[in-house]
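In this supplementary section we document a worked example of the pipeline. Step one takes a protein sequence of length 444 as its only input; no multiple sequence alignment statistics are reported here. Step two produces a three-dimensional model, which step three serialises into structure tokens for compact storage. The input and output of this example are shown verbatim.
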Amino acid sequence: MSVQPTIPWFILLVPGLLALAAGLLLVRRGLRGRRLGDTPHCRKCDYALVGIDSGRCPECGTELGPRTIVRGERVRTPAFAWVGVILLAAGAALTWAGGAAAYRTVNWYALRPTSWVIDDAGSPNAAVAARGWAELERRMKAAPLSAANRRRLAELGLTEQAAATPRPHAHRAVEWLGREVVAGQIDPDQKERFFRQMLRVTLRTRPTVVLGDDIAYRTEYSSRVPAGGTWWLELQHAGAWLDGKQVHGASGSSGFSGIGAAGASGSTVPCKTPGEHTVSVKMKAIIRHGPDAANDRSTPPLISFDVDLSDKTNVVTQEPPGYLKHVEEPGLAERLRACFDPKGFEQNPRDISGEVKVTAVPAGLAMDVFARAGGTEYPMGGMTILKGNSTNYYLRTQKYDGPRVNEIDLVLRSNPKLARHTVDMNEAWAGELVIEKVPVKQVK
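The serialised model returned by step three reads:
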């Protein structure tokens, strides 16, 4: 496909303006006409001054003299007027086309006040926000923002960072904040908020627990950290407490970088008395910045702060109605089995391992998983999945002393105790699923 060359705007606009001017002159000439003959007329009102002896025009009262008297009758020239109309039409078309082309050559958005562009950058409309951020980045490369506009943009960035769900341009806001913090251009209060908002973490416990079951709790966290590898947030897990008494010690750490990176960890705490109880979790957040902040622990932290979370639960002596519903529907087993896709299973001398992709289960699942090989079942752990959810599970036999095999059967057997040890599962399918003849690759 050939591309037609674009006509420069001035090639259209200049002839258009000339045609408009010529057309106006011709129309005026054609409609006014020219004077022919010798009959005297008042120059002001064109009254015929035939047989008038007075020194003033009897029509308009103008004093008559050589400068106020013209001679001849006006005779119009329609042909001039029509040619003028044609030139006006052509000139208008050329002027419109040239003016529109000239208008498009000007970046009018670049003339928009910076405060308005900042408003655009915070728009819920993704296209408007993208245009606003692109223009702001162009301006900031050319010259620094004023102190007032920098603080205003920082407030926008902090709002984006704190949003429960990151919007499409949240990464631009957070990365700009990071650059400004490193350059020392952010106010101290905004800098503190920037660091604190890098981490979103919540603690949830099972709201009601039957005496005899452990209390399930789960921490869920997501990051609002600038991407690119130079920023790193480490979350160290210091332990868990029940009613102020420590029941779990330190349990490792998690690391984050980028917008929206998320994770969760959970466990249970034993409780032997009914009533209301408080589960607490303590962590320490450490924020580093440097060329290899994720791996270089010698990089001094910019800031570290404690994260203390707590949630209440009620331990009851009897299971309340509807506490855990057992789902049993005809045909549901086949639908559930179709949601499982095992792949990458392999066997070495010590164990059998592999991954199972689970997609949109039509019922909640709380199941023990076994590898059946040579007629023996070997435990591979448990899985809990809420109705409608999808996930990937990595499975490994906890102890394997069986023969070398080329395939196994995966056996999934419901276990209500697993459901009771979650924070939010109130119904689970009851039954057994068998995924037969899963290929197993032999490795040394």
